[in-house]
Description:
Strand order of the largest sheet of chain C: 2-1-3-4
Radius of gyration of chain C: 15 Å
Helix content of chain C: 25-40%
Oligomer: heterotrimer
Distance between the termini of chain B: 50 Å
Strand order of the largest sheet of chain B: 2-1-3-4-8
Strand content of chain C: 15-25%
Shape of chain B: globular
Strand content of chain B: 5-15%
Largest sheet of chain C: 4 strands, parallel
Number of helices of chain B: 14
Number of helices of chain C: 4
Radius of gyration of chain B: 21 Å
Structural class of chain C: alpha/beta
Order of helices and strands of chain C: EHEHEHEH
Amino acid sequence: MLKISIEKLNGLFKAVAEKQTLYIPADRADGASEYKKYEDGMTLSKNLNTLRSAKDFFFPQTENLADFKVEGKKIEVIDIREEAEDFVVFGVRACDARSFTILDKVFLSEPVDSYYKNRREHGTIVTMACAKPAETCFCGTFGIDPTEPEGDVSCWSDGDSIFFRPNNEKGQKFVDSVSELLEDGDTAKLDETKAQTKEIMAKLPLANLSTEAFGGDTLMEHFKSEKWAELSESCLGCGTCTFVCPTCQCYDIKDFNTGHGIKRFRCWDSCMYSDFTKMAHGNIRNSQLERFRQRFMHKLVYFPSNNNGEFGCVGCGRCLSKCPISMNIVKVMKALEVK
Amino acid sequence: MQEAIISRAKQLLADGTVNRVIGWKRGEFAYDITPAIFESPEEIDADFVYDDFTSANVSKYLVKESRKEGKILAFLKTCDTYSLNQLTKEHRVDRDNIYVVGIPSDGKLDVEKIKAKGITGITGVERNGDILTVKTIYGDETMSVADAMSNKCLSCKSKKHVTYDELIGEDGEVTDTNRFDMVEKLENMTSQERYDFWRNELSKCIRCNACRNVCPACTCENCVFNNPDSGVENKAAADSFEENMFHIIRAFHVAGRCTDCGECSRVCPQNIPLHLLNRKFIKDINSLYGEYQAGADTTSKAPLNNYTFDDCEASIVHERGVE
Amino acid sequence: MQVNDNKEFQPLIVAFCCNWCSYAGADLSGTNRLNYPTNVKIIRVPCSCRVNPIFILRAFQRGADGVILCGCHPGDCHYTSGNYFTRRRMTLLFSMLDFLGIERDRTRVEWVSAAEGAKFAATMNEFTEAVKKLGPNRRLEDLRCRKQ
């Protein structure tokens, strides 16, 4: 398999960044990591995952959709869409890589979201296999193998070198563009690393979490469950879980009056917010219990029901570590699966 | 401590003083504690926990809970009693419906700080004196307790419970803290440096509203930022202005009412030091209008609901500090 | 009125004036034919105390380079005590803006009575000059609202 030694990795970043924008997970002063545009001197974070997920690249928190110019009774619509520039996201983990499959099902099915599609077509995702999963990881529950990440190019590290495997045309193009930096390498040590990671995966505290009790045909049983009251009683109704989630894709569209025109923009919304379903007639989900239930029912029941059994969660564990009151999908699943 | 709390909770449930208990519930790991309400001794035995990670302030839940049928037992740490007192003062809770047991706290730990040391796969945490042993699936790690101490406890303002019906353990005193050090440091920077500092911090904000929703002083039924009729409603900051706007207004609305419990910074998923904004207001109030600690009593007038004829003019801002 | 044809920066000033004193003061300065810059936009409020911190921030968002709040002199409030609350509130707000690195000369509180037409004009001239020196508001502006 093609590889590059870890010392030379920054040379590869530099070569890629010369041709197109490159984003890599970089450390922040507070110890967390986040995707940053690569600049000379930056190094790849050693953290397992970034604080915010990689969905931002294709579905940013806010984006402008259209501009309006209003003169008297005339409204002119200005299409502000532009072809996105090519970019590369390096170091996406297996869980986040799978989240794109889920987001694609939402945004690329008819009617196609042209804003999302534009970025998706121009972005190359280079994934990185995990070697040291955390206690909050449960990607295995959703059939994701962190040692075999998806994406346009898959990468592995054996501690000395990074191995590259293109998975499609786009990935091949990426590998070709840096081929002079890569050399052929022996994967014996890598196979060992993979085996070790698999061993650790089996030992993780959430290794036995199962989706068996969920899916489209369990709708009424779970919807009517009496456990929601207890599960949701301490929910603050904030949007942390939603915003750090790589698969949450709900948004709101609003107009902003700039004083000399109108900007129509969309921004992430959260089903945990009290005004999420507020409409002209009122609100259909008036209690936090209903809002809380919606989020988990969507991921565990509604989404698989509409998408051939695919769950709306990838087990990245971000909500587990970020929820202010530590209530999360794992606790919900464990509570609901007990009959 | 946990045993004493549990046995007292069961006693008070059994003798009918209260019909439910608000406390903390054990999670999946050593550190993911959820505030919860317990209605039976069995539930308490199964899940009630009070340890190094029970830092959540449960006072705000009492706004809703104290209006329900029957008395509720609340175990409050010192900082939590200030929040409850402030809520009582603002008539947001029915204090007669709450039985407060004051409990001591020798500082809570912040798992984020442990993880920031690169420790992962945490399965257990043990505190022995000053040393913290973190058990992980990759082997044991040790670090000092001080390095893992949550920020809000590092600058603890008081070990004294300001409201309680009974106490477990000894009551302490108001402590002399260094809590304004960072505010002062910022004040002594130049305007450009301060601007850069806050842009760097506030641009991380994802507008999850956790700081607002967890705040025991933020108890409006409908926040101005959620109200489409307010003209400033926004769900996500589309511009740096909106980041500033949200945080200035959030802090301003609790100015003079914020007890400095530190929950806003604790819950921030982006680790923004939001408490500094609140502390700036507290520091200004102390220096301009006299020492004031929100939540210390239930009778005094809040500084922004009050005035004197010889208050300083707003121009004082132009005359002091660093430009 | 002078037509400003050179490209010198002309700040936009928003002046919140209380109905009972400062607005009447502004009126008096007009009837006395005193000059103050045309880029001062007056917003009449029932009392200086009506001005919510959000109003001040909104003014900056929508393009103001400086915001000044005028009310009755302390002790003269039409509602007895409104301006005393204003004084505390605005002191804290301005201090916070300063803390966030927003230039401190962009905000001001001034007490102007109904008889002080001359003071109103002088204050506005002086404040406009001070803001002009700072240049356009960049630290507390909404880029979307910037006129292209």
